[in-house]
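Lab notes, practical 5.
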Amino acid sequence: MYEHIRDFLSAEAGRDDTRQGRPIEELIKTTEMLSGEESQRLRTYCSTECVQIHRDLDEYGRLLLYGSIKDVEMDFMRRFDKNCRKVEQEPGKIEDKLPEIHKQTSQKLYDLRWGPTKVPIYNLLGLFFRVIPPNRANYLSIAQYLIDIAQVPVDGTDLSGTTALSHCFSTKPACDLDYAQMLYDAGGDVNHRNRYGGTVAEEIAQVYVYPSLNPEDAVRKETIQKAVDSFKWFLSHGGNVDIKDTDGITARILVDKIGLVELKVVLKEEDERRREGCYVSSLLDWD
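Output from the prediction step:
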């Protein structure tokens, strides 16, 4: 994001800030869920700050950016070997210690964070999809390696408390259901709550589509379709629209009050499908 645009948006958001609660300098040092003005203050910070490639990437971050799966594999083996050599002089067989050494090596990668919004490894790879689209296949291969071989958990969160999976189907800033499926298959939670207490469904429900006199407006149609696809994916993977955020709001409330008509239709159909499923299940139990 251009600096002048970021500064303008930050200034505009700050006009309504009454300065109640803790300042952002304190909030970024915490991890707990927030509500009210503190929640909005963190949301503003996370939406105006971002990872800058030349400023925020360390050596390992640049290795990921280059997109070489072989380099990532070699790096993990070097880390693993280094940890093995640290304990080989300790009592006991090294073979018995390998699972714990592997876990420690994976944990180091899990703990890595980049930039002012503290982006974890899978979130960073998701950002790279948009920075260098031609390398997408390489980044997906790296993610799969980290999941299958390195066994780095996929539930790491950034400063806003958002996982890579949540970012994948939130539609903002991008919608990537293929990557979402990979992370879900690896144990990702579609009902994960961020630091504002909400699930991704709340973000989808608030997608705004500008009015247009042209029924064939391509951008408008694409925005609606992404929101619908993401919402359907969320629901089909066990998404719960009745989870309350820290202000007592649910995705269902937002869809009913301000959601796109298309989202209302999707939710109605899913409610009916689940009711029918419960009815059939009750009949089977009765038999």
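Observations recorded by the TA: The two ends are 60 Å apart (CA to CA). Residues 95 and 207 are 53 Å apart (CA to CA).
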